[in-house]
Amino acid sequence: MKALKTATAALCVGLAALGASAPAFAWPDKSVNVIVPFPAGGATDTIARAVSNHLGTQFKQTFVVENKAGATGSIGAAQVARSPADGYTLLVSSLAPFVVAPHLMKNLPYDPLKDFTYLTVAVQAPNVLVVNPTLAPKLNNLQDVIAMLKAKPGAVSFATSGAGSSDHLTAELFWQKAGAKGLHVPYKGGAPAITDLLGGQVDMSFQNVNAVVQHIKAGKLKAIAVTGDKRSPVLPDVPTIAESGLQGVEVYSWQGIAAPRNLPADVKAKLQAGIVKALKDPALTKQFTDVGLEIVGNSPEEFTQFQAREFARWKQVIETGGITAN
């Protein structure tokens, strides 16, 4: 009888342990919410939907993309930070809520250094300095742009997709390194900024390569230089800013995927491997690289370290430039 009781107790302990670990091993056994903290139709949204479709096929569950825009991406990011760490809520975002919002907004409802499990940087792309059709004949290289800025301090207009956006921060960094400041003209998103740039209402802009490459190839915008440490494969004739004689403006826009902090290790490993598998799919790779996006797919540890470096870098740029959220 004693042996039977011992065996029964051991079995109960074993079943309890199995039950405790079952949710992690069973992941995913229901649909997964994928939060995009920006409006539908933008680059981050497109990337999130493409990767989510592939993950849905891999894991035989629905990955539902939901747009929660506003406040430099912090509204959607806060929702993910508050969610259970069970693998059923993900965040696909640019750098804005991870490394920009904390330096622009008071009382941010999350700590980007502590409240997320960083899975992988999905893609990255340099920005490109483009000028409108009217100015195109007058500006042949970066030194021409810098000369114009110095001749008209604070008057040359730079369109951005909003205060604290990647293109805004790139412009601010460029002004700091060039020693000459332009006029910041913020828009509510990249699309209206590009529309006014094409129409000549603003002079120039640092835009994501993938957002303007077709306009450049069509001759509607003139590309002056890219911000990467190498030339963009889709714009091989456009020099880097460093090649053009100005150092310290190596910038990539990027989209990363994260989950709430304390995500179970096995779920984290399964998710990250699934995302990397999606990024390596030939059709998905072509979809991204055709518009100038570069596949990254790094490890959680590499993403965490990268995020910390970006956090410190943009803090300095924001403080030096006196950038605010308005």
UniProtKB/TrEMBL annotation:
InterPro entries: BUG (IPR005064), Bug_dom1 (IPR042100). Keywords: Signal. Residues 1-26 form the signal peptide. The keyword Calcium does not apply. CDD domains: PBP2_Bug_TTT. Pfam families: TctC. Belongs to the UPF0065 (bug) family. PANTHER family: BLR1237 PROTEIN (PTHR42928:SF5), TRICARBOXYLATE-BINDING PROTEIN (PTHR42928). This is Tripartite tricarboxylate transporter substrate binding protein. It comes from Comamonas antarctica.
